Amino acid sequence: MMALVLPLGSVPAPMYSTLLTHVLIFLCIFSALCLSSDHEIHPLDSLTASELTQVQTIVNNSICSTSCQSLSFHYVGLHEPDKPIVLSWLSDKDSTKVPPRQAFVLARINFKNHELIVDLNASAIISNKVHDGHGYPLLNFAEQSAANRLPLTYAPFIASIKKRGLKLEEVICQSFTIGWFGEQKTKRIVREMCYYLDGTINLYMRPIEGITLTVDLDEMKIIGYRDRLIVPVPKAEGTDYREVKQKQPVSSPIKPITMLQPHGPSFNIEGHVVSWADWKFHLDFDMRVGPILSLASIYDLEKDESRSVMYRGFISELFVPYMDLTEEWYYRTYFDSGEYGFGLCAAPLLPSSDCPENAVFFDGYSMSQDGTPRKLPNIICIFERYAGDILWRHTEGAIPGKVFTEVRPEVSLIVRMVSAVGNYDYIVDWEFRQTGTIKVNIGLTGLLEVRAEAYTYKDQIGEEVYGTLLAENTLGSYHDHFLNFHLDLDVDNPANSFVKTKLQTTAVMDKRSPRRSYWTVVSETSKTESDARINLGSGAAELLVVNPNKKTEMGNYVGYRLLPGSVVNTLLSDDDYPEVRAGFTKYNVWVTPYNKSEKWAGGTYADQSRGDDNLAVWSLRNREIENKDIVIWYTLGFHHVPYQEDFPVMPTINNGFELRPTNFFEHNPVLKVKQLAKVKWLKCCKECRHNLTADIDPLA
């Protein structure tokens, strides 16, 4: 579920009465525009708190009343209706009933993996399947917390801490999934890595290296212990990133910048449906994948109709393999969505810091181990952004005696969530632009995962290096981040095709031109899945999703194209176990026919999975994709070689992609966009000791 939260505490104290007046106007209009408590239920609405409680009651009464020795919930989300049913309801809401509300549940019942479908209308479990295959569901917070406490009362560990001269009360332990490396039989286990505080809150910069504890999560006990070596714990000095802990000198201050909209926002929110400019979309939250954007459509002014662009888009999986082969590190190959829950780790957003003053905030809900709903406050924000960018412009000076200049400022709508998965913070932005473009940006910040070492200077390191020496005894490990996006584009209806357009150099062999070469465009429509597996970076290419059943007045197929940001490919070998599990990283682009059950690229049971149920396996069927309802899977990545500037906290690095209209409109869709209206604003000039009246853009 998501709930709207107004940013009442986010507006800075005014320096003058005029600002206060505008803020009050803003809040009044804001409430009128955005609050809608009586909205109709949408088939794609996430489960409400009361529905989650109902799921808990139904499961407990149906299963635990007779044969339940143990029960733990690991995932609960909307069991979305079939796509044709949703589209039918959307086209005729008056005569079509809202589909039954159902929940999809992954639970451990009597130490077995169960997949449940719970019908909330019938208050009954309508499907209960036992998963006998490989892998386990994502970890929940309760069992991680219980596992993290075990070392602190374990005598061998206490002795190891004492041997190192450390204080037990300053030790914090964290749970790490272990991957899979060819074992025939597996248990549901994690390994505990412990850290040392004592003078800092930046625990990740002070690892206690050399100790490995293995915990059986079902029995909740330590089943393995090894203290292999002792290396110095990195010092606390210089690791605390809090503002109050910074010593002089500090950076030169930046004068305050305020983002206000005195006439209120330009967007409207009714339930989960957001309308802005010509865009309309449904916003959802899921405890596994985070924000889900659905039914994105844009109003075409010339055709006087809303046209579909994307049925559903979300982060399907996030794979983070580390490049350290030591005993305590080789298994660190995380699936942050499928093992830890990308949405489950959503962090509360801070008004005026994570999001500007003009942002609206949403709460979300997940489910605890015992099935109790857990509120996640302020985890998504929506705001309009104007940063001085230009939408389009031209200065015409070729007409004798005249100069014409036309400029349009770029204003866009941002949907943001931050997921704090352990040491890393992932900033996820879905940006909707007036041009019809959807831009996705991923920002990486937070803290590196470092290994404690005896080294204090780079020249002490031998030939086999797994990282960068960032500070004394602190090695920043090489690693990757691969994010796979599930993009179900419906460009003017579901039946679409995938077209690869290559830019090909052609030699001029005759004398028709003094030129020796030029490039031209060669297009190829993919017939099956194997045709559409693409590794980018090998040459210039355009990747299009077109509707082969619709053309523009000029005869071009209407479409959207995928514009990647920085291209990153996996460097792991095909037979490396982490790569087998994360087969979706083998190609940057995959295209599959729509299948409701194929939504998580790493498979349903990512923890200790074996690569036998993931996107790479699904695609082996080589199904037809021409003029079909298709899904684009795009993997963007980061090869992260740490540098000293990443210590003790990382400045944000970014990568992303765009979905941009391609012959979708008959001409430039923002040709008729107006200039931003200007308002009279009272500015206080402290230095001049007098007031100035100026024309200020309302978003400035």
Automatic annotation (TrEMBL):
PTM text: Topaquinone (TPQ) is generated by copper-dependent autoxidation of a specific tyrosyl residue.
SUPFAM superfamilies linked to this entry: Amine oxidase catalytic domain (SSF49998), Amine oxidase N-terminal region (SSF54416)
Enzyme class: oxidoreductase
Cofactors, names only: Cu cation
InterPro entries for this protein: Cu_Am_Ox_Cu-bd, Cu_amine_oxidase, Cu_amine_oxidase_C, Cu_amine_oxidase_C_sf, Cu_amine_oxidase_N-reg, Cu_amine_oxidase_N2, Cu_amine_oxidase_N3
Keyword NADP: no
One biological process term in Gene Ontology: amine metabolic process
Residues in the signal sequence: 1-36
EC number: 1.4.3.-
Domain Copper amine oxidase N3-terminal as annotated: residue spans: 138-233
Record-linked Gene3D superfamilies: 3.10.450.40, Copper amine oxidase, catalytic domain
Residues where 2',4',5'-topaquinone is found: 424
Catalytic site positions: 336, 424
GO molecular function ontology, one term from the record: quinone binding
Family statement: Belongs to the copper/topaquinone oxidase family.
The protein's name in its UniProt record: Amine oxidase
Source organism (scientific name): Coffea canephora
